[in-house]
Predict the 3D structure of the following.
Amino acid sequence: MILNEKLATIQTKFKSKKSRFNSFGKYHFRSAEDILEATKPYLLDLGVSVTVSETLISTDPFPIIESKAAITDGKDAIHATAVVGIDLDQKGMQMPQKFGSASSYGKKYALGNLFLIDDTQDADHGKAQKSKPKLEGQALAKAKDFLKAGGSLEAIKSKYEIPAATLKTL
C-alpha cells in the first residue's frame, strides 16, 4: 500500500473525541493531543509515523508560527501546514502562554488539514449551531402572514423547526 492509500485509510476511518470544554463559549472541542491519540491505532498497523514541527517564520509586526504535520512511511512523506499569528497584546496571559496557545492552535489545524478533520462546530469557525426555535404561537401567526404576502416556505424553514402537523397548516 502506498503512502497516499495509508493516509486515505486514516482520513476515512479516523474518529477523534472532543474531550475539552470551553466554559466561556459553552462548546466542546478537540485538541492536538486528542487528534494524535486517535491516530495511534493506525501507526503500527499501517507502518507510518506522524510528526508535528514548528518554525517561527516572521516576527514583524508580530510573531508568526508555521506548524507542519507530516505522515511518513520511511520513504515518502505528506505534509500539511497551518500558519498562526501570536497576539502579543492578549490580556490575561503571560508571554509563554501566548506562544503556547498559538502553538497548540497551529498543531491542531495542521493535523486537521492532514487528516481532513471537519471542525466546523469548533469556536474557531463560529459557535456550534444552536437548535432552531419551534414555529408556534405568535411566530406561527407571523409566518402565515409572511406566506400570504408572497414569502417563501424555505425562508421560514431556515429559521424555525416546523413540526409536521404545523407544516400541513402552512
Notes: Strands lie at 20-22, 27-29, 49-58, 64-72, 77-85. The chain has a mean pLDDT of 86. The longest helix spans residues 95-115.
